[in-house]
């Protein structure tokens, strides 16, 4: 199906074309580009103009450029614009203008990607949904997601992130959501903000992009909730709060953290609800209520939504659970892995440790008779002046008292390592690669293990080392 014609792209961007073309999609990466897509030559870590020839060789319908690269054929199909970033934004703006989809925008310090994926699953039960496959939530990710929006989408879910002040509002105005949602405000990116209140004001600026008669949804459990509420009331026709505290419009009243799922009771406005998500975690329970609040705001079927929510599970690196069989002859000899290695800040770290604390190890299986709860924790970045105290403070969390061993990675996590009691203190290494070298000696059958840290800490190396303990079928490489 054609997504963009040359004529439509020219009208959207004000550019010019060197030949006629039709594109079935939009790509910024030649590694994943599919034949028929429009290649956008963004300037990021590398200048996309250096890859235009490769994109055309792989079958790109055309390339959006702001200069004609050397070595390109005279008749090559190009969309020439003044600036590629601005051109992509214009393409996204035009896609949003022509779409009949009802748009939901999501931001938050924690849980925006998992909430986006919950919304994708829930809304798909009631129409065609468009959402980014990855965390495309920045200055190029949001317009790219919009530019890729199919003509027939009933719903679109747009994730919006930030690293510095002033980033969210322009992206929200580009997305023009009918519903805007803030999951939580927590100490993250404090290096760029003076205070938690500053982060709250930035997150609340998502409401500035709301369409007329738009709905604002915010977490009502926070110290900074009044900041969110005030901004919501200034820009929304309807305001909905969610959380666990009395007084929230959509309220979680009971959370049962089970070994493989979370069962939640609450009220969606005045209607009692009981729902399940297929992963343990109080934060998933609360964000599930935010999803149901969105369903209510869109006027959709709540019963279908509750049923669909029970089919959602998190993706790799975001709390997904995995059984690693250590002995193919005795499949019960296994380790349970909680892969939450994609990112971390104090709020998400606390939530992940609570999940680990609630997990049930299995006893009398391996060389260690008692199954253990074991954590591999990497530095939390961008916490500013409070970074030392925030890492050390993890030792005081209630969940820590149920965790048997904590291995720490990175210079900041050394402060947690020193704050832990000796019995709970595991190894400390500078890098995840060093830690990964001895993972197989740390773990035994029956253990439950969590890996979590900021993305730049590379906790994926530890996760991979745990997975390599897996024994495959006879005759395989394991």
TrEMBL record:
- Where in the numbering of this chain does the Mur ligase N-terminal catalytic domain appear? 24-92
Keyword set for this entry? ATP-binding, Cell cycle, Cell division, Cell shape, Cell wall biogenesis/degradation, Cytoplasm, Ligase, Nucleotide-binding, Peptidoglycan synthesis
Q: Which InterPro entries match?
A: Mur_ligase_C, Mur_ligase_cen, Mur_ligase_N, MurCDEF_CellWall_CoF430Synth, UDP-N-AcMur_synth
Q: Which sites bind ATP?
A: 108-114
> One MF term from GO for this chain?
ligase activity
Q: In which pathway does it act?
A: Cell wall biogenesis; peptidoglycan biosynthesis
Q: Where in the cell is it found?
A: Cytoplasm
Keyword match Cell wall biogenesis/degradation: yes
Q: Which domain of life is it from?
A: Bacteria
PANTHER family the UniProt entry points to: UDP-N-ACETYLMURAMOYL-TRIPEPTIDE--D-ALANYL-D-ALANINE LIGASE (PTHR43024:SF1)
| Similarity annotation | Belongs to the MurCDEF family. MurF subfamily.
Name this polypeptide is given: UDP-N-acetylmuramoyl-tripeptide--D-alanyl-D-alanine ligase
Give the originating organism: Thalassococcus arenae
Instruction: Please state the gene responsible for encoding this protein.
Output: murF
């Amino acid at each position: 199906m054609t997504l963009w014609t040359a004529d439509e792209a020219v009208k959207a961007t004000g550019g010019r074309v060197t030949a006629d073309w039709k594109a079935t999609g939009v790509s910024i990466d030649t590694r994943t580009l599919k034949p028929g897509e429009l290649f956008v030559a963004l300037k990021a870590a590398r200048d996309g103009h250096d890859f235009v020839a490769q994109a055309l060789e792989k079958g790109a319908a055309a390339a959006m450029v702001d200069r004609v690269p050397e070595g390109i054929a005279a008749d090559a199909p190009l969309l020439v614009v003044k600036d590629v970033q601005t051109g992509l934004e214009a393409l996204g703006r035009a896609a949003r203008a022509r779409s009949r989809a009802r748009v939901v925008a999501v931001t938050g310090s924690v849980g925006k990607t998992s909430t986006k994926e919950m919304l994708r699953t829930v809304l798909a039960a009631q129409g065609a949904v468009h959402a980014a496959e990855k965390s495309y939530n920045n200055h190029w990710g949001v317009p790219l997601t919009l530019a890729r929006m199919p003509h027939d989408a009933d719903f679109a879910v747009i994730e919006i992130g930030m690293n510095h002040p002033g980033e969210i509002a322009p992206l929200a105005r580009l997305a023009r959501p009918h519903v805007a949602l803030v999951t939580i405000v927590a100490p993250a990116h404090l290096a760029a903000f003076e205070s938690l209140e500053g982060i709250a004001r930035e997150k609340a600026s998502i409401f500035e992009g709301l369409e007329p008669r738009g709905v604002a949804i915010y977490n009502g459990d926070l110290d900074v909730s009044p900041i969110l509420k005030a901004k919501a009331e200034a820009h929304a026709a309807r305001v909905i709060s969610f959380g666990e505290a009395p007084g929230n419009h959509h309220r979680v009243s009971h959370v049962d953290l089970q070994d493989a799922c979370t069962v939640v009771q609450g009220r969606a406005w005045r209607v009692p609800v009981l729902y399940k998500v297929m992963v343990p975690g109080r934060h998933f329970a609360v964000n599930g209520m935010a999803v149901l609040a969105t369903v209510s705001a869109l006027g959709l079927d709540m019963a279908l939504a509750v049923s669909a929510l029970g089919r959602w599970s998190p993706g790799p690196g975001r709390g997904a659970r995995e059984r690693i069989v250590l002995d193919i002859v005795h499949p019960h000899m296994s380790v349970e892995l909680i892969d939450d290695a994609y990112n971390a800040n104090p709020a998400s770290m606390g939530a992940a440790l609570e999940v680990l604390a609630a997990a049930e190890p299995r006893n009398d299986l391996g060389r260690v008779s008692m199954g253990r709860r074991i954590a591999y924790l990497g530095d939390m970045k961008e916490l500013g002046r409070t970074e030392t105290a925030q890492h050390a403070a993890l030792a005081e969390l209630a969940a820590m008292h149920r965790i048997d061993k904590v291995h720490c990675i990175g210079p900041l996590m050394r402060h947690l390592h020193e704050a832990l009691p000796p019995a709970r203190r595991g190894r400390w290494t500078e890098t995840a690669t060093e830690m990964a070298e001895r993972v197989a000696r740390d773990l035994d059958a029956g253990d439950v293990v969590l890996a979590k840290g900021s993305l730049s800490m590379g906790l994926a190396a530890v996760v991979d080392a745990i997975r390599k303990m897996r024994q495959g079928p006879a005759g395989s490489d394991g």
